[in-house]
Structures are given as structure tokens and as C-alpha cells.
Design a protein that fits this description.
By secondary structure, the protein is of the alpha+beta class. The protein folds into two domains: 95 residues, no CATH class; 99 residues, chitin-binding protein cbp21 (Coagulation Factor XIII, Chain A, domain 1). It has three helices and 13 strands, in the order E-E-E-E-H-H-E-E-H-E-E-E-E-E-E-E.
Length: 224
């Protein structure tokens, strides 16, 4: 099942005194609050990436670069997690694409993409064996050179009562040119008799553009 590309949903973190987050209703922005509990490693990495690329917008890009990003953003048809069109400023578009590259330690271009976003996968399916520390991801067609798979997932839960894509979080990003089946490491062992939903998209490692997500329900299976 194809799912609309969540744009603002992945901007989870703070820029200045504004915090981006999301809930069942979709993405939203609020005034930044000082957290009481320490952040996870993933949250810290996302926050650092957002701060780095936001600073780059002001300090590294020229006026011509920023104008090019504004023109590019105005020309794009971007969908939120509910499939509704939204508008991004040039800065929002730059931060969105560049933060994906920053998290992977890749080069961030100063100018917007000249190519189209990569096409979505044709099919995706996952296999999770009880007590395993990873799952197997089968997919078609192969993304090809310069492309990675960006894998998101929901918390394990009873089938039929799983969160939707607004509650999904990034699980794993593959190396370039992955082949099927792909082994995806998990943060903990596969639980018994529960399910998760994988959301998988193709990421262009040269400019940060992504395809739409393709989803797959994955059930925990007993060991053979």
C-alpha cells in the first residue's frame, strides 16, 4: 500500500525557539520547551542535524542559493501524511532535504535538486522471527547506484491496533545500492505474537530527495 510522503512529520526537533513534532492529527509546530528527561541518542542526532543545516542556511548559502531554494520549493507538489498538499518555504525545503544527508554524514549541496525524486519501490515485505535481533526486508525493484532505503516503523503491538504513519519513526537507513533481501537491525529482540508496520522509501544520497513510502505489515513469527 503506497502512503503519502510525510514531509513535516520527519522534522522532529527544535530550530531556535520553535519545536517541530507530530501526533495522530499530523505535524505541528509549538514553542520550544526545555525537556525534563534526557533525550535519546536518535533524538539528539536529529536535533543536531537540524541545528547544523539551519545554521548553514544563514551562514553558507548565498542570496542566490536561497532564492533558488525558494523557487524550487514553490514549484514542488508536496504531500503531508494525510495526502494533502502543503507549501514549504525555501528554508524549510533546504532543512528537510539537507537534514537527511546530515544524519548520514553525506555532502550537503548548497543548491536545490535538478533531478526528480526517486520512484517508489514496487513491493516490500518483511519477515520477523521471534527473539531475533533483526528482520529481513524483501523488496523490488532495486533502488540502484547512489540510492539507499530509508526504513521507518511503528511500535510493536497487536495486529489491528497499530499506530499510523504519524507515529512511525526511523529505524534504519541502508548503504547505497541495497539488494533484496536486506537485513535490518532492531533495537531489541522481536517480541512474541505482535506486529509492526514498516514504511520504506528510496533516498537519493546526492540531494536528500525521497520517494513516497510503501508500507508492509510484519507479524512476529515463531522460530522454525
Amino acid at each position: 500500500m503506497a502512503v503519502a510522503n510525510p514531509i513535516l512529520a520527519e522534522l522532529s526537533g527544535s530550530i531556535g525557539d520553535v519545536t517541530w513534532s507530530h501526533n495522530r492529527g499530523g505535524a505541528y509546530a509549538r514553542r520550544r520547551a526545555v525537556p525534563v528527561n534526557p533525550s535519546s541518542a536518535a533524538q539528539t542526532a536529529v536535533r543536531s542535524a537540524l541545528q547544523t543545516v539551519s545554521s548553514r542556511w544563514s551562514t553558507a548559502l548565498t542570496s542566490a542559493d536561497r532564492a533558488a531554494w525558494s523557487n524550487w520549493a514553490a514549484s514542488q507538489t508536496i504531500l503531508n501524511p494525510l495526502g494533502l498538499p502543503i507549501s514549504l518555504t525555501g528554508q524549510q525545503a533546504f532543512v528537510m532535504l539537507s537534514s537527511r544527508l546530515q544524519l548520514l554524514g553525506l555532502t550537503i549541496p548548497d543548491t536545490p535538486p535538478l533531478s526528480m525524486a526517486p520512484p517508489a519501490l514496487v513491493s516490500v515485505a518483511g519477515t520477523a522471527i521471534y527473539a531475533a535481533s533483526d528482520l529481513s526486508l524483501a523488496f523490488s525493484a532495486a533502488p540502484g547506484s547512489g540510492k539507499s532505503l530509508d526504513v521507518w516503523w511503528t511500535n510493536w503491538g497487536p495486529q489491528g491496533r497499530l499506530p499510523n504513519i504519524n507515529q512511525a519513526r526511523r529505524l534504519f537507513t541502508s548503504a547505497a545500492a541495497p539488494t533484496s533481501p536486506l537485513t535490518v537491525p532492531l533495537p531489541s529482540e522481536v517480541p512474541q505474537a505482535l506486529a509492526t508496520v514498516l514504511y520504506v522509501r528510496v533516498l537519493d544520497r546526492s540531494n536528500g530527495q525521497c520517494s513516497a513510502f510503501l508500507s508492509a505489515l510484519v507479524l512476529s513469527e515463531p522460530a522454525p
